[in-house]
């Protein structure tokens, strides 16, 4: 029982930093990061122009992250039909993102948040020491209309995103 209580307390300490997590109705904050080609991407260049799918994931080339990215790739035509821009963000660097995008033929933007500053700005929670996997659907006004958080089911981030975009129509 003692160990269970210690584990439970540890879980809450390490896993729940979502106090400041962005939620439905919040505006997307301003940020700039380098993309997989080394170009500076400014979120303000797309906010207010089209719907956005911003997904945070733990690491390039890991099992669930690769399945998630490939699922976004495989549904890219559907995202394009909704006029949505897909943006993946992790703490991996530009070189890692470039290799990941080329290896899996990813047609969307990957952003290098090496300092985790944007992850913190969004309040993406960690599970112990693993960076969280959260997707935000943003309308043309820059307002979050849907969020989805699941560490295990990377592919469901895609179906959740498409359903949310469908509702925006």
What order do the SSEs take from the amino end to the carboxyl end, as H and E? HEEEHHEHEHEEEEH
Query: Over the alpha carbons, how many angstroms does the gyration radius reach?
Result: 16 Å
Which segments are poorly predicted (pLDDT under 50) over 5 or more consecutive residues? 1-18
Round the mean pLDDT to the nearest integer and report it.
Answer: 89
Summed up, the helix count is 6
Shape: globular
β-strand percent reads: 15-25%
Q: What is the SS-derived class?
A: alpha+beta
* Assembly level: single chain
Largest sheet: 7 strands, mixed
Overall number of strands = 9
Helix content: 25-40%
Q: How do the strands line up in the largest sheet?
A: 2-1-5-4-3-8-9
End-to-end C-alpha gap: 51 Å
Folded structure, characterized:
It is a single chain. With 169 residues, the chain is an alpha+beta fold. The chain is built from 6 helices and 9 strands; from the N terminus they run αβββααβαβαββββα. The strands form 2 sheets. The chain has a 7-stranded mixed β-sheet. Strands 6-7 form a two-stranded antiparallel sheet.
Brief summary of the model shown:
The protein has 169 residues and is an alpha+beta fold. It has six helices and nine strands, in the order αβββααβαβαββββα.
Give the helix/strand layout.
Blueprint: H1 2-15, E1 32-35, E2 40-42, E3 52-56, H2 63-74, H3 76-81, E4 85-90, H4 94-103, E5 109-112, H5 117-122, E6 126-127, E7 130-131, E8 134-138, E9 144-149, H6 156-168
Parallel strand pairs: 3-4, 4-5
Antiparallel strand pairs: 1-2, 1-5, 3-8, 6-7, 8-9
Keywords summarizing the entry:
169 residues; alpha+beta; 7-stranded mixed β-sheet; two-stranded antiparallel sheet; 22% strand; disordered N terminus
């Amino acid at each position: 029982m003692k160990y269970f209580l210690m584990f439970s307390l540890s879980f809450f300490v390490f896993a729940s930093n979502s106090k400041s997590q962005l939620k439905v109705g919040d505006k997307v904050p301003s940020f700039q990061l380098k993309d997989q080609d080394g170009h500076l991407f400014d979120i303000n260049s797309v906010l207010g122009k089209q719907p956005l799918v911003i997904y945070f994931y733990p690491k390039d080339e890991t099992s669930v992250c690769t399945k998630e990215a490939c699922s976004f790739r495989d549904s890219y035509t559907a995202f394009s039909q909704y006029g949505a821009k897909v943006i993946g963000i992790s703490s991996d660097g530009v070189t890692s993102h470039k290799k990941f995008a080329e290896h899996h033929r990813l047609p969307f933007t990957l952003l290098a948040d090496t300092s985790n500053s944007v992850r913190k700005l969004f309040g993406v929670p960690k599970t112990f020491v693993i960076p969280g996997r959260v997707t935000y659907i943003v309308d043309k006004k820059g307002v979050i209309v849907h969020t989805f958080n699941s560490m295990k089911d990377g592919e469901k981030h895609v179906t959740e995103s498409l359903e949310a975009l469908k509702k925006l129509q």
